[in-house]
Structures are given as structure tokens and as C-alpha cells.
Amino acid sequence: MTERADRGGTRDGTAGSAPDGPRVGSDEAGKGPVLGPMVAAAVRAPPDAIPDDVDDSKRLSGAKRESIAAALREGGTVERGVAVVPTDRIDDPGTDMNSLTVAAHAEAVAAVATERDRVVADAGDGDAARVARRVGDGVSERGGGSVDVPAEHGAGGTDPPGAAASGGGKGERAAPDDALDDDYPDRGPVGSGYPSDPVTREFLRRYVGDTGELPDCARASWATAEDVLAAAEQSSLSEF
After folding, report:
1. Helix 198-211 with 223-238: angle, nearest 10 deg
2. The pTM is what?
């Protein structure tokens, strides 16, 4: 699913080629959790519309991310694209996380990109050149025009539009996570959603123990989810 929002300024197809014109950055959040979707965000903005204190979302508090997001929204010249990859798409055996990440970047960027824009994408796997090529092709296929896409490892912390996108992706990703506790009031808390989080693992064990199946928010193909199911089955067998 792709969302498009916060459009401002003009898009005449030439602004992206100007040195001081709008640039695009993209980043994703939620590749590793066992719960919830993955989200990619793209931000298109002129350099002077990006707050000076923008940074990789991992280095910012939730309050700081929200204040930066508010500043971007209020600027009037910022465009934002969001692509959400739900758990059932993640669990599809015909795909993989690297391909899904590239597709999500392409969907988010295509929602805001203009012909000849420069797009800095965060490189989600080891081959940055391959990521750049695949994102560029994906943007073109989705009607975003022919764009210049360098991909950089850690772009969410070094490229200002990429950092703005990093915060946007983290914020969009956090929204469904925050709602999970409300969705499972009798079996929460849900925790961060990451496999290393003991609260998340206990939530899964509790849910599977009560229902015999995984919650809808779980990525069933993740080893953590499979381990919880296997442990519950083994526990049931030992009772005989």
C-alpha cells in the first residue's frame, strides 16, 4: 500500500535538476521485527526546508522525531510518500526482505519524484549499486519518471532528505506498533516487536498458549514465530 501526503510547492519536471532545487531521500523502518509491517518513507524537499537537527531516526527520541515531522509539515514545500508492506506480503514465500525493501523504497519515491530528481536511497543490503539500480528501475516502472538514484549505506544519518525520511518511516512504523497493545488488551503488553525483546517473546508465547495460533500481527515466517509455535506444540505433546 502506498500513501501520498504533505504535498507543497510546484513540480514542473525541472526543479530536481537544479543544484538548489528539491531533492529526495528514502529510508525504511521495520525490517527486523517479528510483529507488524515494514514501512518505507520518501521525502522530497528543497535543502532549506530540512531542519538542521534532522538525523537518523535511531538516534532521535520519539518527541524529537515528531517535532521534526511537524516542522516539515508546516514548511509547505515538502512532499512525503509512504509505502507500507504488511505481514502477509512479508510472509509470501515467493519474495524476500531485500526485494521487499527495494520495492517499498520505489513505491514511496514514485509517490513524490519528478523526472530528473536526485534520489538518495538508504542501501538495505550489501551491494549499494544494485540497490540504486533496482530502486531507480522500480520508480520508473511506477510512473515516477527517470531519476538519478545513488544508494548509500547509512543515508538516513548522512543525507538530510534521507534523515527526514528515516524519521518519517520510523514514525509511520511506530503508529501501528503503538496500537498493538490496544488490539490485544487481554494478552499484552506487546513490547517493541523485535525478536530480542523478552516482552515481545512472552506476548507471543502467551497468545499461542491461549489460542493455539499466532496473532495476525505476527510475521509467521520469522524464526521467532516458528519457535514459539514449535514450543507450544511440544508442550502439548508432553501433557499426554
Report:
1. 50
2. 0.80
Q: What is d(CA 176, CA 126) in angstroms, rounded to the nearest whole number?
A: 29
Q: How far is CA 88 from its chain centroid?
A: 15
End-of-domain residue from the set 178, 199, 222 = 178
Q: Note down the domain range covering 151.
A: 2-178
Shared-domain flag, residues 138 and 189: no
CB 14 within 8 A of CB 116: yes
Q: Are residues 113 and 229 in the same domain?
A: no
Show pLDDT as tens, one digit a residue, over the chain (240 residues).
444 444 443 333 333 445 567 889 888 888 999 999 999 989 898 877 776 666 565 666 667 667 766 766 666 678 889 999 999 999 999 999 999 999 999 999 999 998 889 898 888 777 888 999 999 999 999 988 889 888 877 765 667 777 777 666 565 665 556 678 788 888 879 998 999 999 999 999 999 999 999 999 999 999 999 999 999 887 755 554
Indicate if 92 and 198 belong to the same structural domain: no
